[in-house]
# Entry
Amino acid sequence: MEPPDIHHLHAAEGWLALGNIEEARIEFDKIRPDYHHRPEALNVSWQIQAQQKNWDACVHLAELLIEAAPDQPAGWIHRSYSLHEMKLTQAAWDKLLPAVNRFPKECIIPYNLACYACQLGHLDTAREWLEKAMKLGDAKRITAMAMTDPDLRPLWSAQ
# Structure
């Protein structure tokens, strides 16, 4: 990416962090179109679409991100999250499961699998995936996150 495009990409990320989706989109649109299919641009574009809950576009962008950067976990995680938000949780599970072996140190993958298993009614499986996530990541942070995650609510009510 050229410096002006990098500047606009970082500006879009900054606006996203501030919660201003419109300004993020304006900055993103200043990036030259031939850079829109680069992994870092696809990731920002996905974040913009996700904030707008445009899940069909998110699935498409995540698939492009997987093609552009198959060795990075973001596309795999984004695709399944988008499918889950579309109420296609079984598909989210099916698409994310292969990523476990591909990214064995990424704690968000087992965490999300725990969420999907829980929503599919497989509470024992959900507990197992949540334990794996805690072993891979910061257990305190993951526990705190899990305690407030609506996708895991059935897990806590079953105890």
Summary: The CA atoms of residues 5 and 31 lie 5 Å apart. The mean pLDDT is 94.
